[in-house]
From TrEMBL:
Keyword Membrane: yes
Keywords, comma-separated and alphabetical: Membrane, Transmembrane, Transmembrane helix, Ubiquinone
Protein name: NADH/ubiquinone/plastoquinone (Complex I)
Spans traversing the lipid bilayer: 30-53
Species whose genome carries this gene: Granulicella mallensis (strain ATCC BAA-1857 / DSM 23137 / MP5ACTX8)
Length: 56
């Protein structure tokens, strides 16, 4: 969970967002994790499609 909190803090500080409360920071952490998982799933899916077409 510390890695997730560090990612959220980095995101908040990088974009100059007003520091949220602890509850809001937790929600932001889970939201950022969700976005990262979606991005990873898209990259894996594109890789699988490309692999399939290259080896068919």
């Amino acid at each position: 969970m510390r890695l997730l909190d560090a990612l959220a803090s980095a995101f908040i500080n990088t974009f100059g967002i007003t520091q949220p409360s602890e509850q809001t920071r937790r929600h932001a952490s889970w939201f950022i994790l969700g976005l990262l998982m979606i991005a990873l799933a898209v990259v894996v899916a594109v890789g699988m499609v490309l692999y399939h077409f290259m080896h068919s």
